[in-house]
């Protein structure tokens, strides 16, 4: 569920998708813990939690700030920081996070949403 913000123009709040993603990801971490490998955990997150984060966002007017490092892309970065047991973004270099995302075939939410928006517009 995507909420709306009070504004003169229509805006979408990303609070609910982010909370849903974190809730589902923490449930996976709680059940699997550190028993499973990083590959298995990342695949579970990709198949179960990522759709929660991206659900219906192609129809919402999102700003670059909503998509960038301050919001949706940052959610994915935080997941990788937690997966590799780093306690702070300063400890793990952002390039390492990007490398891990590419190794585990994670697309950035901003890129995926742009593709979905184009596909949605083309279908109209």
Q: Any chance you could write out the topology, listing elements then pairs?
A:
Blueprint lengths: L2 E2 L7 E2 L1 H18 L5 H17 L9 H4 L4 H12 L10 H10 L5 H15 L1
Antiparallel strand pairs: 1-2
Description:
The protein has 124 residues and is mainly alpha-helical. It has one domain (3-123). The chain is 61% helix and 3% strand. The chain contains 6 helices and 2 strands. The protein has helices at residues 15-32, 38-54, 64-67, 72-83, 94-103, 109-123, and strands at 3-4, 12-13. Strands 1-2 form a two-stranded antiparallel sheet. Helix 1 runs antiparallel to helix 2. The radius of gyration is 15 Å and the shape is globular. The mean pLDDT is 82.
> What level of helicity do the residues show?
55-70%
Tally of helical segments: 6
Terminal-residue CA separation: 23 Å
Radius of gyration of CA atoms, rounded to a whole number? 15 Å
Major pleated sheet: 2 strands, antiparallel
**How would you state the average pLDDT, rounded?**
82
Element-level helix/strand string: EEHHHHHH
Structural class label = mainly alpha
β-strand number: 2
| Overall spatial form | globular
Strand order of the largest sheet: 1-2
Strand content: under 5%
Question: Any idea how many domains?
Answer: 1
Low-pLDDT stretches: none
């Amino acid at each position: 569920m995507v909420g709306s913000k009070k504004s003169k123009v229509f805006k979408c709040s990303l609070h609910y998708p982010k909370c849903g993603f974190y809730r589902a990801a923490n449930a996976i971490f709680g059940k699997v813990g550190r028993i499973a490998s990083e590959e298995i955990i990342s695949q579970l997150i990709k198949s179960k939690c990522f759709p929660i984060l991206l659900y219906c966002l192609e129809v919402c007017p999102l700003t670059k700030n909503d998509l960038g490092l301050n919001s949706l892309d940052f959610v994915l970065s935080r997941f990788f920081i937690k997966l590799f047991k780093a306690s702070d973004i300063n400890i793990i270099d952002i390039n390492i996070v990007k490398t891990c995302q590419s190794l585990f075939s994670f697309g950035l939410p901003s890129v995926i949403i742009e593709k979905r928006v184009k596909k949605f517009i083309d279908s109209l």
